[in-house]
Design a protein that fits this description.
By secondary structure, the protein is mostly helical. It is built from ten helices and three strands. Helix 6 packs parallel to helix 8. The longest helix is centred in the middle third of the chain and has 23 residues. It starts with 5 loop residues before the first helix and ends with a helix.
Length: about 250
């Protein structure tokens, strides 16, 4: 067996600063994703756990620990008391989340926004789980560090799908809400001073302005804009016609 993948690397040049991704169907019939990195190629399954493994027979470690929680509840009359995740548990969940992190970045590049949403929401679910059951607040906070990026990526995916469907107002509202949620996250974690400097907040606020500029004008807005232009040009006959059109819209 020839383990040398030099021919693959030579045919797919690595470019620093660029996310180079491709997808294809593997020999097992499953869709795969490949990411070109500086020292090689990273390959992931498009669905399920990215590395294709089933830890302890479960689709993911998160689902394994969730099953352990349900078993604990069954044995303790529905109570969560006494169930906790130690350092090793949290570390393993973080490492698994990293696989999904690589994959949703690939899907973002491939403009597969539904799968970006799926994987970001999956990692946010993991963070909520750790936040609720970590052995200490310090452990929980360590896992939460990537939450702002996840929130930003999910918001971008949702808002892009909305804009593709012509729902610009809904996209603007969603991004505004996510910016507020990010600021609230920094307050709840005692890092209010970082809110105004957060790359995620700054990125979403800048993108929000871009969405507003790209949003098509409604009929009323277009008429109002045309009316203002006619008045500036002292074209009063046209202005009167535009006023009449606006009145008919109101009726």
């Amino acid at each position: 067996m020839n383990f040398d993948i030099s021919h693959l690397l030579e045919s797919w040049e690595y470019k620093a600063g660029e996310v180079s991704v491709r997808r294809f169907k593997g020999k097992d019939g499953q869709e795969k994703i490949q990411l070109r990195v500086d020292l090689g190629i990273m390959q992931m399954n498009a669905d399920g756990r990215p590395d294709g493994k089933r830890p302890f027979g479960y689709p993911s470690l998160l689902e394994y620990y969730q099953a352990r929680l349900e078993k604990h509840r069954t044995e303790h009359a529905g109570s969560d008391e006494g169930f906790m995740l130690d350092v090793e548990d949290c570390t393993r969940l973080q490492l698994e989340a990293l696989q999904y992190h690589h994959r949703y970045l690939c899907f973002l590049q491939l403009e597969d926004y539904d799968r970006v949403i799926r994987d970001t929401e999956r990692n946010l679910e993991m963070m909520d789980f750790v936040d609720a059951y970590a052995q200490s607040d310090e452990l929980a906070l360590n896992v939460q560090m990537l939450r702002p990026q996840l929130m930003m990526m999910r918001a971008r995916a949702w808002a892009t799908l909305m804009m593709q469907g012509g729902q610009f107002d809904a996209a603007i509202e969603l991004v505004e809400q996510e910016v507020e949620s990010l600021r609230q996250f920094y307050e709840e974690t005692g890092r209010e001073d970082l809110a105004d400097e957060s790359p995620e907040v700054l990125s979403l606020e800048a993108w929000l302005e871009d969405i507003r500029e790209r949003r098509p004008l409604s009929t009323r807005e277009a008429l109002q804009q045309a009316l203002e232009e006619a008045l500036r040009a002292e074209n009063f006959e046209k202005a009167a016609q535009l006023r009449d059109a606006l009145r008919e819209l109101k009726e």
